[in-house]
Amino acid sequence: MEKKTKIGDYGASFNNVLHMQYHRSLYTKVTGVDKQKLHITDEMLKEWKQCIDLEEDINREVTASPLSKRLNEKDRERDEVLKFLFGVIKHHKFSPVTAERGAAEVLGLIIKPYTGIQTEAVEEETGHVYGLLRDLEKQSAELMILNLGATLTRLRALNDEFVALRLQRRDAAVASKLPTARMARPKTDAIWSSIADQIYASYLFAATDADRELIKGIIDIINKTFADFKTMNKQS
């Protein structure tokens, strides 16, 4: 077995909920094997579970927050405006009116680098929306031809409101007794790294072929679990 199959990916690219669920799934699979064969201590498992439980508490608090619900609603509304904006420009590229077609061609070049920003992480999307607005507003004549002034005004308002809500939620998180997910996740990753190293070392130095096959099996299961969650993360 090559060292790369040692397992080990922390799920760093996963969103907070998937990160917690990923480690919860790993915990269930690892604790289903004799810990002595994996050379994992009760203290390690206890620390890992505490980290996972803490992440779950953080996620529950964030999900239950009225600010989070308002943020999600604001993000969905912002995405709808972006979809409308891009759609109008694309549609008018086929307009029989020469002026409209020309305006759509100009604006189409501007929006091209911003295609798909609705699917980005919210912080990235927010920044890109401001960039999009700044670039489009330089083309006032074309915007007027396609009657998009009100659409851009609404998009800017939604983006500003989203930023304000994010700041409010950040302030609320500071006031909370729970740490942020950004603080909690590295601790989960650190204890998992130690456990993964123990599992891999146990494979390398297994006392019997049967033990080695057993440990290889759990490594394969863990790697499959990561692959499954990676797919879910891409689809989320």
Provide a descriptive summary of the structure in words.
The structure is a single chain. The chain is mainly α and 236 residues long. It folds into 2 domains: 13-64 and 180-235, no CATH class; 66-175, no CATH class. It has 10 helices and no strands. Helix 1 packs parallel to helix 9. The protein is elongated. The two termini are 32 Å apart.
Give the gist of this structure.
The protein has 236 residues and is mainly α. The protein has helices spanning 16-30, 35-38, 42-64, 66-92, 98-111, 122-136, 140-145, 149-175, 181-204, 209-235. It folds into 2 domains: 13-64 and 180-235, no CATH class; 66-175, no CATH class.
Query: Uncertain segments of ≥5 residues (pLDDT<50)?
Result: none
Helices, by number, come to: 10
Beta fraction of the residues? under 5%
Helix-residue proportion: over 70%
Taking the alpha carbons of the first and last residues, their distance comes to: 32 Å
Query: What's the β-strand tally?
Result: 0
What is the oligomer described by this structure? single chain
- Average pLDDT score: 91
What Rg is obtained from the alpha carbons, in whole angstroms? Answer: 25 Å
What best-fitting shape do the alpha-carbon axes yield?
A: elongated
